[in-house]
TrEMBL record:
One Pfam family here: Pentapeptide_3
Name of the protein described by the UniProt record: Pentapeptide repeat-containing protein
InterPro entries membership: 5peptide_repeat (IPR001646)
Domain of life: Archaea
Phylogenetic lineage: Archaea, Methanobacteriati, Methanobacteriota, Stenosarchaea group, Halobacteria
Length: 718
């Protein structure tokens, strides 16, 4: 028989003093129910031990709970501070007309809380609830707000397939055992602010219609959001991820914020998609971070982030501006086959290990100003369709950009760690740009087999500009040699490179490649690609005079140097620089002669071929001596004077009587024979030898006069 109203009341002030934090209620709450039997409390506020003494089991308490929820009075929905053994409302529909919430705040459940496939159409308050056993809300439906802030779930918490049609708030809650929210649907705001997950938890294939809020949450173990979809803003700001975090195949339709997050284990964002800006500023990745095949539709911001493990950002499409400014990559970093549709900002970034941008594509500007590459900087086969800036960039090891294409490249005051560094631009295409090195650093550029367009070069030691660049079979398409005549004159030598070509660094394909394309990458076997630049023939081996002569005459690189100056000549002609074209043509012909010599001394050539080659050498040498390959008319004059003097001496040897009765008559006779022009009396040449000499000199003279006219006309045209 009841003795009156339940004496239980909840005093928030007293509770806060005892627990040191705010209570879920602002005002004192008193239970309106009748006391149980001869006790002073209702059966919900009796302790489990006292209920056991009275013979009240958990099942009857649960039935009483369901009965209370089925009444039409709002007062029957309050259970603040109640103590339950086990709550089982599974497979029930709790749909009352009233909108008053079911109040389970500060409730303690010593057993399990079972609500599998439960349908609840009223708001539910579970703030500060403590569930000692398992909590199972599998496939439950909540039609109104659910608030479980600062709740404690000491057993397994299962919300698989649960549907929260309105807001769900778990801010400050603690999940001591594994928590599963797989396939859950959040229809409005889902708030897990400062929630604590002390065991593995999973939100796989979950759907978030409202804002997803996990600010300052902590995951001590693995967490999985695989294949989840976030329709509104997602905020994981300052979250602690103690285990592996999986966001693979997630879709973020609004802004995603991971600022100041700490990832202690693997962070996996493979095949994810971000339709709006993604924020990872100041994030710390202590282990591997993988964003393979992820798509960023808008801005991707990683400023001041730290990657202590391997950073795998391969096969990514960055659709908006991408910011990696001041990021520390303390391990291997890969942007293999990634595409940057807008600006790519890597200023002040530090790459402590290999930085691999193999086959990356930059559609807009790319900034690497003041970035530091401690390990190898690998940009092989990259495409820069906008301007790429390497301004005051530091390369401490090596930098290879071979087989890349540049719309416009700026290499300005590149820095080293004190030694020499050669930037490998072999087989690249540089349509325009600037190479400025005025800080005294020993930086060299390997442009072997590349194509150079409208490029400006400025060096501190202007006299040694071309000592910093390796031009070898390089094609010039728009490069203006006229700006460097003072450097090239008087020798006009391009191959004065003083740097070293070191290809011993790793040229492996990306270690995280997802398709078998290792054979496509240059030097994919891990060694250097074939860098041989020798001509088609090598000097013959062997001892004796023949070997010494071959070594003196032959030049193993002559064929490549011939092509080098041929391409330089063609490039100079394209920009209308006839003077440079003339000088490079002379160099081309010189190395063509050396090439013929190389082949003439090669074992593989037949005797007939060798004789032909030696004939070509003689013709080439004759053209060089007589007219400088048609570029130097002064040589024709000089050769003509020598010819006149030689023939005068020969006339003196075969003609006994001096012409014109004077010793100088031999010279006059030689001049007349050379020019075939005679003024006044002629000298008599009495014998056959003298007449033969006069005839041959006349032939040579006519040839030299014609050659002089050709060379003079050509030089004036130049």
């Amino acid at each position: 028989m009841s003795v009156g109203t339940c004496a239980y009341s909840f005093d928030p002030v007293a509770w806060e003093e005892e627990h040191g934090r705010s209570a879920a209620l602002d005002e004192r709450w008193s239970c309106p129910r009748e006391a149980e039997g001869e006790t002073d409390r209702c059966r919900f506020h009796l302790s489990p031990a006292r209920r056991a003494e009275l013979g009240i089991d958990d099942e009857s308490v649960c039935e009483s709970l369901v009965s209370e929820l089925a009444t039409g009075e709002a007062s029957s929905l309050g259970f603040v501070g109640a103590e339950f053994g086990t709550i089982d409302v599974s497979h029930r529909v709790l749909d009352r007309v009233t909108n008053h919430p079911i109040d389970l705040r500060h409730v303690t459940v010593y057993g399990e809380f079972l609500a599998e496939q439960t349908v609840l159409r009223q708001p539910l308050l579970m703030d500060e609830i403590r569930v000692e056993g398992a909590a199972d809300f599998t496939d439950a439906e909540f039609g109104e707000d659910v608030s479980a802030e600062r709740a404690t779930f000491r057993g397994d918490a299962v919300f698989d397939g649960t549907d929260f049609e309105d807001s769900a708030r778990f801010g400050g809650s603690t999940f001591a055992r594994p928590a599963s929210f797989d396939r859950v649907r959040f229809g409005d705001v889902a708030d897990f602010y400062r929630a604590r997950f002390r065991a593995p938890c999973s939100f796989e294939e979950s759907a978030w219609r409202g804002a997803c809020l996990f600010q300052r949450a902590a995951f001590r173990s693995d967490v999985t959001f695989t294949a989840s979809r976030f329709h509104a803003r997602t905020d994981f700001r300052t979250v602690q991820f103690g285990g592996t975090s999986r966001f693979n195949r997630c879709e973020f339709e609004d802004a995603a914020v991971f600022m100041n997050c700490a990832f202690a284990a693997e962070a996996l964002f493979k095949k994810a998609s971000f339709a709006q800006p993604a924020h990872y500023q100041n994030a710390d990745f202590d282990s591997e971070a993988s964003f393979t095949e992820t798509e960023f539709g808008d801005k991707a911001k990683f400023q001041f982030a730290t990657f202590d493990g391997e950073a795998v950002l391969s096969y990514i499409r960055f659709g908006g501006a991408t910011y990696f400014k001041a990021v520390d990559f303390n391990s291997y970093a890969s942007f293999y086959k990634s595409t940057f549709d807008r600006l790519g900002d890597f200023r002040n970034a530090t790459f402590a290990d290999t930085a691999r941008f193999l086959k990356a594509e930059f559609t807009d500007e790319a900034f690497f100003g003041r970035a530091t590459f401690v390990g190898d900087g690998d940009f092989r086969s990259a495409a820069f369709r906008g301007t790429v800036h390497f301004v005051e960039t530091t390369f401490r090891s090596s930098a290879t950009l071979r087989e890349s294409t540049f719309e416009r490249a700026r290499f300005e005051n590149v820095r080293t760690a004190g030694g020499d560094v050669t930037i490998n631009l072999e087989r690249t295409t540089v349509d325009g740009g600037r190479f400025v090195q005025e800080n005294g650093a020993a930086v060299y550029y390997n442009l072997r087999r590349s194509r150079i367009g409208d490029v400006d070069i400025e060096m501190a030691d202007s006299e040694g500009v071309f000592e910093r660049f390796l031009f070898y079979r390089t094609e010039f398409d728009g490069f203006d040699f006229s700006n460097y005549r003072y450097v090239l004159a008087p020798e006009w030598v391009l191959h004065t490179f003083r740097g070293t070509v070191d290809d011993t660094y790793s040229l492996e394909a990306d270690r995280f490649a997802i398709e078998d394309d290792a054979d496509e990458a240059p030097g994919a076997d891990g060694g250097a690609a074939d860098e041989s630049g020798g001509g088609p023939g090598e000097p013959a081996d062997g001892g004796g005079v023949r070997s010494w002569l071959a070594g003196w005459l032959a030049d193993g690189e002559a064929s490549d140097l011939e092509v080098t100056y041929l391409k330089a000549k063609n490039g100079a002609e394209r920009v209308g620089d006839s003077q440079s074209a003339s000088r490079f043509f002379i160099k081309e012909m010189y190395y063509r002669r050396r090439t013929h010599v190389d082949r003439a001394f090669a074992h593989k050539e037949s005797l007939r071929s060798r004789l032909k080659l030696l004939f070509l050498v003689a013709v080439n040498l004759t053209l060089s001596a007589t007219c400088g390959y048609g570029e130097k008319p002064r040589r024709t004059i000089g050769f003509s004077l020598v010819t006149v003097v030689v023939y005068a001496a020969l006339f003196a040897a075969v003609v006994t009587d001096p012409p014109f009765a004077s010793p100088l008559g031999y010279g006059l006779l030689s001049v007349q024979s050379f020019t075939s022009l005679i003024f006044g009396p002629t000298a008599t040449v009495p014998n056959f030898a003298g007449s033969f000499l006069a005839a041959t000199e006349g032939f040579v003279g006519a040839f030299m006069i014609g050659l002089f006219i050709f060379a003079l006309t050509r030089s004036v045209h130049r």
